[in-house]
# Entry
Amino acid sequence: MPRNKKSKKNWNSKNKGPLIGVNVILGVIIFALLAFALIQYSTISNQANSIRGLEIQIKNLNSTILALRANSTTVPITKTNLTLYNISNQQLPQPPLSLSAYPVITQQQPFGKRLTNINAPLNSTELAVINDAPSSYFETAGEMLLNGSIDNYVGVGSGLQNVSAFIVNGKPSVIYLGSITCIFCGENRWAMALALSRFGKFDHLFKGYSSFGDGDLPTLYWRPMTYSNASGAIDIGNFYNSSLINFITLEDTNPITQGFQLQSLGQIQAELQQINNTAYSDAFNHILQINTFSGTPYTIWGKYVVGGADAVDFGNTTPSSTPFPLTNMTHAQVLSQLASPSDQFAWTEYAGADVYIATMCASLNNSAQVCALPAIKGIESKIGAVS
Amino acid sequence: MIKFIKKLPRAFKKIYSPKYIVFNVIVAVAYYLAITYIIKAQNYGIVLILVPKYLLYLVIASASIMLTTGVYTTINSLHKKGTTAITSLGTVASLFTGLILGCGCGAPALFAITAVGASLIEASAIAATLVNYSIPILAGIILFNLLLILYYAGKAGRLKSR
# Structure
């Protein structure tokens, strides 16, 4: 009774707060702070990457001097434990050509929920589209990128990060950490494959998809994948051969019929220790030491880290939400577009490849033939990749 | 309990005067914009949702109703501090949805915790947990909001409307 009285008194008193009360003000402040923090994050992240790049360059220089003095191939660098890797006489693992527990699915399935031809190897004609793409396509796409006529996003996001190249058997490496369930890995593997074909050849590539929950995009797999492993696994290795570079692939696998999933880096590290391949374990340690991983795909091209996808290419235009045009394309249609590029989708893939090529050319002192393309030189200059 | 449930429609009727309906709609739109912004910020401007869309809409609906009932109760309550704190907690929890759903292939906002001392392996473990358990986490947030709504509705039933 007294409480009611008090309530009534309170209610009838002059204490009439504004309709938009404390909670609303708090809510608005939280919204504003979150939005501000996110915008600031990307700006600061860009600046931090540049500074970190400079720091690492200085450290690399120090470590090179130390390495020369000590005549050692692996030199720990100051307190960050960033190591210069130079691994020799190391056989990179050769994955199986097929996995009986994860067979090719031949059944035709509907777009968005299809695994048709998953793990099927590309035939020689299909493989030639990647391996033998004409240099003119790379040049045209590069020019389009430089003159701003590529509609989709192509770039290096938060900026390039300069690190020490990961050397195996005397060659710098491209290190890839991705996930078969990831949509950006799916769309970006096409560009990666095209870029890598400029420095070597794929003996085999395989048809794959991103997960059902992440676009079900047709993509390439570097090897047959354990696409329905409920507990997750790391599938390593590929069929790439090059006299100039190594290609080290770490692909996290989870059930493809679900959504995006990723094992923690701790789990991946533990699995790699069991595989017991020095090049792969050290490549992963290299990623950990660089300490800029924030999602997949994560790639290191020679002495440059490209965090995230270097192109966002889900079709001629990229809508801001599902469904994506690429979801409704078959592997044959993608390959056909890449064989004779005539639209934004295909040119974006080549432009994305050009960015990767530029980083690798800068790491190889432009010694590969593709590095002579004017567009590649232009992109090198644009993204700040220097030999 | 049955008495409480029977009183709920009356409590909601009391809360939802036209001005509070308008307020609820504005809050729902604001939540939607904030959550999609957070998702886009982490995914190259693309709204990629890890869970069925209806779960996102359920979070937004429950969070906006919770905030509306919370505001109503706060304005009409003597004990503003407690209700303000609990409503704020619900608001932050619901906005956290954006962070979870935006945590797809890339999760730069989450990995930013490495800047405050977490190791890369720890950050990746948090990101992996949020991704792999996104549905149960979202269900938990919805349940939390529902419980708050019931709590506020119960309180509102005992208050005089303004």
